Amino acid sequence: MSAREKMTIDERYKYLRLMQDRYLQASRRERGALHILKHEGPEQVLGG
What we know:
Blueprint: H1 3-6, H2 9-25, H3 28-40, H4 42-46
Helix pairs in contact: 2-3
């Protein structure tokens, strides 16, 4: 089971809010990198 499947709904919302804030502040190039991170999983973004 992946880390994404183990997250509670509250953890998912927290992760998505974090991603949204980062995405809105990012340049176009950085947004592309964030899309890749989103698909790799939250452990890359949250430092887990």
